[in-house]
Amino acid sequence: MTRVIGLISGTSVDGIDAALVDISGTELDLKIELLAGQTYPYPPALREKILAVCAGAAISMAELAQLDDAIAKVFAQAAQNIQTNHPNAELIGSHGQTVYHRPPNTPESNTTLGYSLQLGRGEVIAQLTGIETISNFRVADIACGGQGAPLVSRIDAFLLSHPTEHRCIQNIGGIGNVTYLPPRSQENWLQSICGWDTGPGNSLLDLAVQYLTDGSKTYDKNGEWAASGVPCFPLVERWLKHPFFQESPPKSTGRELFGVDYFQQCLADLKGYELSSGDFLATLTELTVASIVQSYHNFLPKMPDKVLLCGGGSRNLYLKKRLATNLNAKAKTLIPVLTTDEVGLSADYKEAIAFAVLAYWRNQQIPGNLTQVTGAQKEITLGNIHLVCHGLRASIESC
């Protein structure tokens, strides 16, 4: 049994999700026990800086270094806090904060290798906590020609697959991603798993709430505001013509595509439509839902028997209801839309748990990617190892 901390801040930039877990086994016998989970919000000024950089704000190299260290410091503090009243962890897996993601073979890249930058240096976290830290998980997959995302599919396979059910594990963070899991009883089931980023999750919704409230709110709790409106389906159909939704997997995306610039285009597209604030939020919700359902119909080998939601969007009751309605509109049999909580894995901290597992696998020399999901040329161990140099260790307060 190894006690591991998983840390991640997703594309919504809400704060650091921290999970303290006990892990045993390797793959088919992999077992995890969640001991503690907590989200630690960013200090407001730091969050604003991160969002500005994600939106393309220019900063100097000195400012980039300062931002990298500032993020590492709050990640390290989260790791310290999550251990309160628990024995110390032996390992940390830190995803960090993505500030830029460019898939391979895009017009901007003109190269077969993608690029993904996560801030929050693992070596700083290791020295501040005194715990070996593994970070920078995406670069090894990218170096092998992969997208570097989604990286959770292999963990989904061993924690959430079922002997007889076809399942979709749908994460709805700032960006949505799916893992399709065929039954474990199926021949070559691991090689038959597929997954991809489905498009915007909460990113556009959060931007809309901030815009509509002049920044006084950051999200629509339970989707209550959106539920008061009526979706504008012509707008949804227009937005679904975006090239990303037509692109076949492997594929990944981020705020670079579905961020501030895209949101401004959505606002411009409202001209000619008389929509209330609730209608606008309902329409953006419908885009998230429709993009998920369309991708299932276009790219899955078969429709799932069950959909399990995780991430912040799994708490959006209106989004969940609309997903169930859309998913079952043409289905021959009912497809339940549940959360991973209902099969024993925390929907709130699943992503943090995943990076704890990836760190554990890195030390076990077990590959962390699935080539058919990321597009990499081979399975490979993921993450850079940062050992503790006790002579350098500093306190968090002194940094």
From TrEMBL:
One of its GO terms (molecular function) is ATP binding. It catalyses: 1,6-anhydro-N-acetyl-beta-muramate + ATP + H2O = N-acetyl-D-muramate 6-phosphate + ADP + H(+). It comes from the Bacteria. Its EC number is 2.7.1.170. SUPFAM superfamilies: Actin-like ATPase domain (SSF53067). Pfam families: AnmK. It is an enzyme of class 2 (transferase). InterPro entries: Anhydro_N_Ac-Mur_kinase, ATPase_NBD. NCBIfam families: PRK09585.2-2, PRK09585.3-2. Catalyzes the specific phosphorylation of 1,6-anhydro-N-acetylmuramic acid (anhMurNAc) with the simultaneous cleavage of the 1,6-anhydro ring, generating MurNAc-6-P. Is required for the utilization of anhMurNAc either imported from the medium or derived from its own cell wall murein, and thus plays a role in cell wall recycling. Belongs to the anhydro-N-acetylmuramic acid kinase family. This is Anhydro-N-acetylmuramic acid kinase. It comes from [Phormidium ambiguum] IAM M-71.
